Amino acid sequence: MLTIDLNCDFAEGFGPYRIGAGREMLQYVSSVNLACGFHAGDPAIMRQMVYEARDAGVAVGAHPGLPDKLGFGRRRMDISKDEAYEMVVYQIGALQAFCTVAGIRLHHVKPHGALYNMAAIQADLAQAIAQAVKDVSPDAILYGLSGSELVRAGREIGLHTASEVFADRTYQADGSLTPRNVKGALLENGEQAVRQVLQMIRTGTVCTLNGENIPIIGETVCLHGDGNHALHFAQTIHRRLLEEGISIQAACGNANE
């Protein structure tokens, strides 16, 4: 039986503000990425969501981002590899503390937004992030864009990694995500998202924005919790995967061979 992890960005609010789908997403995913205070998240939200995910049987991961609440962590910043290391250590440590209090382990680490995209192509940042994960939580799985420098850096340093693909984003010919400011970057139709996910899982390929099929490795599928149709997409994809005989469970990760 084919198995896939469905992950969702979660707890991306701050104080009284809430962004995206809430606890109702937990019944459709197998792992969640919790904001750790930089682009979103605060101690109260982090604690609450760790407990809610634990009680739902969903694996908990840290979602460290750039210190940019106004831009929701999606604006690039000129940071050094040391700064990247320090930011990630700080944020992983914060969420790991709440996991310890809740009696669960930190399952994975997935950078957020611009930090994720920067680490996909910048080897020095990817190496700094991988080192931060290894130093703070060496048993955690590093989630990164399929084919990225981040996945490569994680494997080289001896971490378990999971190559991530996206249900609601389109792809370019080089395997990168279509930038959000480009027309067609987001899939707005649930059936389109389902077809893309099934193609990636079953054939190891994805159809790019210009219609070309390229190879891709999909070990975890991201469902954006802040999307306009997040809950509907999650329900639809979850149902169709089960109908197709594909099991949904948290990623185990691949070790360096």
Molecular structure report:
There is one protein chain. With 257 residues, the chain is of the alpha/beta class. Helices cover 37% and strands 17% of the residues. It has helices spanning 43-56, 81-102, 113-121, 123-136, 149-157, 190-203, 230-243, and strands spanning 3-10, 31-35, 59-63, 108-109, 141-145, 160-166, 205-207, 213-215, 220-223, 247-248. The strands form two sheets. The protein has a seven-stranded parallel barrel, surrounded by six helices. Strands 7-8 form a two-stranded antiparallel ribbon. Helix 1 (43-56) links the parallel strand 2 and strand 3 (59-63). The chain is globular. The mean pLDDT is 94.
Q: Overall 3D geometry?
A: globular
Strand content: 15-25%
Distance between the termini: 23 Å
The largest pleated sheet is described as: 7 strands, parallel, barrel
Record the strand order, biggest sheet.
Answer: 1-2-3-4-5-6-9
The radius of gyration is 17 Å
Count the beta strands: 10
* N to C succession of SSEs: EEHEHEHHEHEHEEEHE
Average pLDDT, to the nearest integer? 94
What is the helix tally? 7
Poorly predicted residue ranges? none
Helix content class: 25-40%
Q: By helix and strand content, what is the structural category?
A: alpha/beta
